[in-house]
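Weekly puzzle thread! Below is a chain. First person to post its structure in token form gets bragging rights.
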Amino acid sequence: MTDWDIKKLRILRTLADRGTVTATAEALHMTPSAVSQQLTNLARQLGVVLLEARGRGVRLTDAAQLVLRHTDAVFAQLERADAELAGYLAGDVGEVRVGAFATAIPALVVPAVAALERHHPGVEVRIRETEAAEAYELLSTGAVDLALSLAAHTPADDARFTRLPLLEDPLDVALPPNHPLADAPGVRLADLASDRWIYGGSGPWSEITRSACEAAGFQPRQAHSASGWTSILAMVEAGMGVALVPRMVSARAADVVLRVLTHDRPTRHVVAALRSGAESSPAVARVLTALRTTAGSRG
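Winning reply:
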């Protein structure tokens, strides 16, 4: 295969534009002898005659014109590559794989991606729904670049990961429409100590519900177990129990009575997790900024 030398090809292109070796040397801040030597070496590498003497100057041969036609296409592609690389370095292009638990996707990830598409359309985000507890495993295996998890699932003192707080998500209580406290002026968790509760049999929401109720002075009496919010809210609506619901979910819930627990103020903490050092990737930084902006807008 022919050994193409980009530097020498640029000299040939400049000669075609400027017309003389002297003008080419001036344009490229070279000496005329250096220009002539480089073009002689290029002709030797390509195995063709590139220049012919014409009076006191030179002219490009047909072979040189053929080379330049292809060279111009190469230069155009290199310009596109430079522009794309500059965009990558600026964080304007790139692919970022985001893992997020179910309730965080509509509340945080989707609005953040929509904002990115408006302002940085070259950044492509691929979303993967995960359990909050899976975030660090997916990061460690390289399956995702950024993951949304809960602070309760953050491994302590693991230098492999960087964790950044995103949002404090308050927990509201979901009551059946005919619940005695549905219209009460204020509701505390302790007021619901004798109620039947609906929450997961294991996992993060079981721990969060139990911890919040225990902090209020009672053990919740679990009547039903479910992990999906559609199922939990359907059972609450049917009068089968009460449930703690994150604000991310309660903002979209219907047909149940949602009460803010101003006294107890149970909260779950949403964090963004990355492999340590990944935050220096411009595209990842763009996504992280969009997530922070979205989280901040939720107040």
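Puzzle host: Confirmed. Bonus trivia for everyone else. The chain is about 45% helix and 20% strand.
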